[in-house]
Fold this protein.
Amino acid sequence: MASISNQLWLLFLSVVLLPIFAFAIRSTIENGVQQINLHPKTTVRIYNQLGGYDVDVHCKSKNDDLGNQVLHDNQHFQWDFHPNIWGSTLFFCHISWTNGQGTYDIYKQKRDFSKRCKKYCDWYVTKDGIQGFKQVLDNDGTQHDSEQDTFFNWEPRP
């Protein structure tokens, strides 16, 4: 009797749980290396809305330095990544222009992943400060709009 019970349990694992687990883990190949990811890609986008001024943007994480970017009026900079399984992914950016500067947490997984921007994180650099927009999703999970929910003030230039 124990043998039939073990066989049924094995069948259950292989038919029900294995496909669910396989679906949850996404395998991608980046830079020739296969990577297994539990979370879908997130895209961060930073837009220059200063109206005629350039903005310098330099973003980093613990493991990645995305380099300095100079954004002219109405240009944007974006990057993609998979948030880690520990919930600790953090990207911060030093953003500066003629009348202000500051270093800001642009993607903080504990703040952003479940409530703000599971797929897209949009930031607008304006004369008033840095405006963050969260995704607004339909019932089926499709993004149809975004609304401002975060704001960072400029720090004065030295």
